[in-house]
Amino acid sequence: MNHRRTGLLLILPALATVVLLFGGGLGYGFAQSLGLAGFTDTPVGLAAYQRVTDGPAFTDGLLLSLWISTVATGLAVAIGVAAALALRRTAAGRRTATFLAQLGLPVPHLIGAVAIGLLLADSGLLARAARTVGVALPALVADPHAVAVIAEYVWKEAPFVLIVVLAALGGPVAEHERVAATLGARPRQVLRHVTLPLLAPSILAVSVLIFAFTLGAYEVPALLGRAYPQPLPVLAYQRFTAAELSGRAEGVAIALLIAAIAVAAALAYTGASRRAVGRVTGARR
Amino acid sequence: MTTDITVADLDHTYPGAATPTLRGVSLEVPVGTRTAVLGPSGSGKSTLLSIVAGLSTPTGGDVRLAGRSVLRQPPHRRDLGVVFQRPLLFPHLTVAENIAFGLRMRGTDRAAIRRRVAELLDAVSLPGYGERRSGELSGGQQQRVALARALAARPGVLLLDEPFSALDPQLRGEMRALLTELHRREGSTTLFVTHDRDEATDVADTVTVLLDGRVAQHAPPADLFRRPATLAVARFLGGAGNAIPGTASAGHFDCPLGRLRLDTDHRGAGLLLIRPAAIVVGDRQGDNVVPATITAVTDRGTHLDIQATSAGVTLHLTTGPATPLRPGDDTPLWLPPAHLSVVTP
Q1: Rounded to 5 degrees, what angle do the CA atoms A46, A50, A51 make?
Q2: Class of A58-280 per CATH?
């Protein structure tokens, strides 16, 4: 009992900060979206939510957002995991991995987006190089499949996955792989039955981080995306900065819907990871 | 199918190391037998095992299983079972799935796997533990599962790398008995690496002593103690307490104690070795009986440590705790010929 009270007191400063900064802003935003606060002409109630979800712009934006996040996460994880497995064997490989990560991680997404734009745009480096050899590339920037947006996310997040997976591989994974080999498992079987299951908790954790981030990030699709459909964060920002008074409430409403999807993904992750971690650590489910 | 193991003239030097870890190691483990490789830490014994398992590639020499060189084969093609110092059970699998792992990788059918797993769980005295996870087992139980897992696919060769050294002493004894019992049932040719001489002599029918990367002696356990091949082997086995300089000839050893009868191939100057526990106290007539004076008696509880002098030579011996001897007593000591050996000084 005493312990519990001490613990509570100890986390109080951190808790207060989080509640004030995070909960405060979120609460105020929520109130605004309901027409309860702020400089707005939105009637009290769910009117803002109804207005933003009505019509194809929201549905198309939602589908585009989910497409970008899912594909970017999948590719970043696949590339990062494959690179980690390939590079871990040698000291030179690990140095390469660290170097790659150090190269990409500190560069802001905005700069990354500009760089990708310069490379992939219709008038970009790649298109011009292709044209000199007589190949006409399809549109990669502001295209229907958001190739440039996804490319930027993968370029930025794959090294992040690489670092996380390399750290996880530093544990007893290699020893278990050796045991599996002595038990007659071929390299492919070792990967499928030992390596990947042991890495599952780390892969899941890094996946949900990337998914939630890409779902809510604004600058990359704003720079590299099309005018229509627009992914939800771009839609939210445009509504929020629109000339009409009602735009504020609508912008916040979209932002909160993005947050809701991210929270749902995080909850799904928590369930999945508890199962995966339970399998790996041997804790009872 | 059980397999014989041949290690031929194996050399190994780790990259960047100044001295080799293994030098010209040769070893033969006949089908269905158990050989222990005994050596202090750093003697190269674990390296030897990992080369046989295919986890390291030697810089020279050959490893043959069933007469065929396996150096070019990766571990999964060598038909092995390996038990390491730590159990290393797969944490994402249950006990039964761990034991079944090797069979599953070979595509054995489910019913056969179930039967084999149940049989092995019984054999390692863990019936009913199949659905548990490794984290729920004690260290000893985990190592028993690791043993069952290594044996499940009936490998031709079972390799054990200090498998019991992380367990407490009482448990170690039980595990040795279990291993002997399992070997009787399963019959896999067993190569066992340990630094514990009791473990080596308990479990193996032949012991190879590895010192500084070389085979120092290869003999049945009893011979190892009675007839150590070198002073270094005797020291490692704790049998260099009495080392008396002298000269060996056919059937005899001449030293300050007189002419002792023994059987040795050694000729010329040498050291006579006899273990303290092999010296017999008491009235006796005949060969190899020397008069001695007791100089010190230390009661160790389970036995007496006694020092005696004879013709200026100090002898160390141990006797039962109730032996009525005191410093100053004169007593004859018998040095049994079967327990005398001569090594190069």
Answers
A1: 120
A2: mainly alpha
- Shared-domain flag, residues B199 and B53: yes
| Amino acid symbol at B87 | P
The partner residue sitting opposite A183, judged by closest CB among B86, B91, B101, is B101
Q: Exposed e or buried b for every residue in B204-231, given b needs 16+ CB within 10 A?
A: bbbbbbbbbbbbbbbbebeebbbbbbeb
Contacts of B84 in chain A (CB under 8 A): 175, 179
Do B125 and B61 lie in a common domain?
yes
Angle, in degrees to the nearest 10, between helices A246-281 and A232-240: 150
User: In 10 A of CB B107, how many CB atoms?
Assistant: 6
**Tens of pLDDT, residue by residue, chain A (285 residues):** 567 788 888 888 888 888 888 888 888 888 888 888 777 777 788 888 888 888 888 889 889 999 999 999 999 999 999 988 888 877 777 787 778 777 777 888 888 888 888 888 888 888 888 888 888 878 788 888 888 899 999 988 998 898 899 888 877 898 999 999 999 999 999 999 999 999 988 898 899 999 999 988 888 888 888 878 888 888 888 888 887 877 888 888 888 889 888 888 888 888 877 777 666 554 443
Q: Same domain, yes or no, for B192 and B298? A: no
ipTM: 0.83
**CATH code of residue B290:** 2.40.50.140
Enumerate the residues of chain B whose CB falls inside 8 A of the CB of residue A181. 54-55, 74-76
A279 touches B: beta carbon within 8 Å:
yes
B305 and B275 share a domain?
yes
Is B160 in the A-facing interface, judged by CB distances under 8 Å?
A: no
**Interhelix angle A246-281/A24-33, nearest 10 degrees:** 130
